[in-house]
Write a structure and sequence with these properties.
heterodimer, A: 118 residues, globular, B: seven-stranded mixed beta sheet, four-stranded antiparallel beta sheet, 0% helix
Chain lengths: 118, 108
């Protein structure tokens, strides 16, 4: 069965950095696009970033562009989100999600909480 | 950026009743719309994609309709596990991908 397991969340000060990881299993990772989606406490869902199966295309929400970087390691079936210059408003649960037919999310991880606070 | 507006914000119904949730797009998204269910403390789950196609393992009581700017998610007869928050999301001319603000279906 499909499994997505995020890790790397925690508490960080404003201006700091974190790297999230998402380990995938149970599907053909090397042909699947992957997304990061976040949810601030008590709020709705916000798409953050996407990476194509071979890493050749990457897209970002304007709110994170220039600060966050998505990458992947296909032999390790892992996708990453490098988050720099973190702001208080980046506080959220971050989910990785498998892409379905270019723009939907058909499988989600359990999420990892990132708290940006001084 | 395409804005999705969901209504109502909260729907209070009893088990066995029919739920009708609405999602309106700020411009046409054709049929490029999905619905997700999120139960408390859980990740979202894909219910419907391309406006009317049920995802794998989704019960037949869930159905989606609409195209262009107006979409509906219908739950024909609410089960106890259906009380949750529902989000619509488009994939038309992205990035960005955007979600609606959500509709909470609560027990009356």
């Amino acid at each position: 069965q499909v499994q997505l397991v995020e890790s790397g969340g925690g508490v960080v000060q404003p201006g700091g950095s974190l790297r999230l990881s998402c380990a995938a299993s149970g599907f053909n990772f090397i042909v699947s696009g992957m997304h990061w989606v976040r949810q601030a406490p008590g709020k709705g869902l916000e798409w953050v970033a996407f990476i194509k199966s071979d890493g050749s295309e990457k897209y970002y929400a304007d709110s994170v562009k220039g600060r966050f970087t998505i990458s992947r390691d296909n032999p390790e079936s892992t996708v990453y989100l490098q988050m720099n210059s973190l702001r208080v408003e980046d506080t959220a649960v971050y989910y990785c999600a498998k892409d379905k037919i270019w723009g939907y999310f058909d499988y989600w991880g359990q999420g990892t909480l990132v708290t940006v606070s001084s | 950026e395409i804005v999705l507006t969901q209504s109502p914000a909260t729907l209070s119904l009893s088990p066995g009743e029919r739920a009708t949730l609405s999602c309106r797009a700020s411009q046409s998204v054709s049929s490029n719309l999905a619905w997700y269910q999120q139960r408390p403390g859980q990740a979202p789950r894909l219910l419907i994609y391309d406006a009317s196609n049920r995802a794998t393992g989704i019960p037949a009581r869930f159905s989606g309709s609409g195209s262009g700017t107006d979409f509906t998610l219908t739950i024909s007869s609410l089960e106890p596990e259906d009380f949750a928050v529902y989000y619509c999301q488009h994939r038309s001319n992205w990035p960005p991908l955007t979600f609606g603000g959500g509709t909470r279906v609560e027990i009356k």
